[in-house]
Specification:
This protein is mostly helical. The chain contains 12 helices and 3 strands.
Length: about 375
């Protein structure tokens, strides 16, 4: 089995895969902010058009497709342990773009107080990214169909898949039957499916690249098996993430899901593709340190995002004009924007005056009372 390429080729492949993953994550982050801008613009101008009829939304959609395509191809060149943690680049880019798009004018002290944790998270994420890229695994193999089959039938992979299936079934039992709707349970299900996704994505992407290079791999049954498993795992991941988004804050989901999914992806790469077999202890420790920095940085970035509270109105009487006014106790976005993506601006909710007719309506007698006239009264 051709386990690895020469050092020069392996280094070049890793560099190509890393750059593709960074480029793809940046494009995805930009696309989400462009689509967010399209939604906000439509809501602010009361444009009757649907969002999918605007040029900005389609521009963001095209960027999303290009970014995901770059991420997909990156798995064919770089190890899983190198590509998976680079999802932090998307969070980092989104945090930077939020400051650019919001264009808030605040004092330096208020800015440091509000965005201090995000700034620290950005520094940790950039430092961690440098560490795990510089000290990550440098071995890479040609993912031919024969090599993938030999990986699957190996006892470490079979044992790993067996443990994953047992753990997934137990978590699914507690989630469905015991109503254990905890965030960790749902995201562990997502992470277990994600480990299968990255394994199959790397196999499918590698075989497609080899086919384009001239070595036909698509006629092997293992390609069809990997493709079906990839699509199925992605669909079920989306379902579990959708259920989690209905119960918990999106920022918390983003940070916990990144940590769990990256950890399981790194383990899957180490077990299935043997990515750390030729690495020394120093490189492994520095890689783990860089990953820990990224975990902490993403957590701090997402933790500093403001959470939208539920609308809790109370009515007070404005004595200057006698008009009751609805106020809001929490932070609520009533300025025509939405609360997803990087563009969240929930400040400055203007109290909305409620028209009130303070004049008392004239009291009229009912027909029964009107029938009694003065002539009907007894005279003393």
């Amino acid at each position: 089995m051709d386990t690895s390429r020469p050092d020069g080729g392996s280094y070049t492949d890793n560099l190509i895969g890393t750059l593709l993953a960074i480029f793809g994550n940046v494009l995805v982050s930009i696309s989400l902010n462009i689509q967010k801008y399209s939604h906000v613009t439509l809501a602010g101008t009361k444009d009757p058009r649907a969002f999918y009829r605007t040029k900005t939304w389609w521009c963001g959609f095209v960027f999303t497709c290009l970014g995901e395509a770059a991420n997909f191809v990156s798995y064919a060149f770089a190890p899983l342990a190198l590509v998976a943690p680079l999802n932090a680049v998307s969070v980092l880019t989104s945090s930077i773009l939020s400051l650019i798009f919001l264009r808030e004018k605040t004092k330096l002290k208020d800015f440091a107080k509000r965005y201090g944790l995000s700034f620290l998270g950005c520094i940790l994420t950039m430092g961690g990214t440098y560490l795990f890229v510089a000290f990550g695994p440098n071995s890479h193999e040609k993912l031919k169909a024969e090599n993938i089959v030999m990986h699957i039938v190996g006892w470490p992979v079979l044992l790993y898949l067996l443990l994953e299936i047992i753990t997934f079934c137990l978590l699914l039992y507690f989630y469905k039957q015991r109503r254990a709707n905890y965030l960790v349970v749902i995201l562990l299900l997502v992470a277990l499916l994600g480990s299968i996704t990255v394994i199959t994505v790397k196999a499918v992407s590698g075989m497609l690249v080899l086919t384009i290079e001239g070595s036909m791999q698509l006629n092997y049954p293992i390609f069809s098996v990997m493709f079906v498993c990839m699509v199925a795992s992605v669909v079920f991941q989306a379902r579990f993430l959708s259920q989690a988004s209905k119960l918990y804050d999106p920022s918390l989901i983003a940070s916990v899901n990144y940590i769990l999914s990256t950890a399981f992806a790194v383990v899957a790469g180490a077990v299935f593709y043997l990515e750390f077999n030729h690495e020394d202890v120093l490189h492994i420790c520095m890689f783990l340190l860089g990953s820990a920095f990224c975990f902490l940085g993403v957590f701090l970035i997402t933790k500093n995002k403001k959470k939208t509270k539920t609308f809790e109105p109370y009515v007070s009487m404005n004595m200057t004009n006698g008009v009751p006014t609805i106020h809001d106790k929490g932070l609520v976005d009533f300025n025509g924007s939405f609360s997803y993506g990087a563009l969240v601006n929930n400040d400055g909710v203007v109290p909305a005056p409620v028209p009130a007719n303070l004049e008392q309506p004239p009291v009229t007698a009912s027909p029964a009372e009107a029938s009694y006239g003065p002539s009907d009264l007894k005279k003393d």
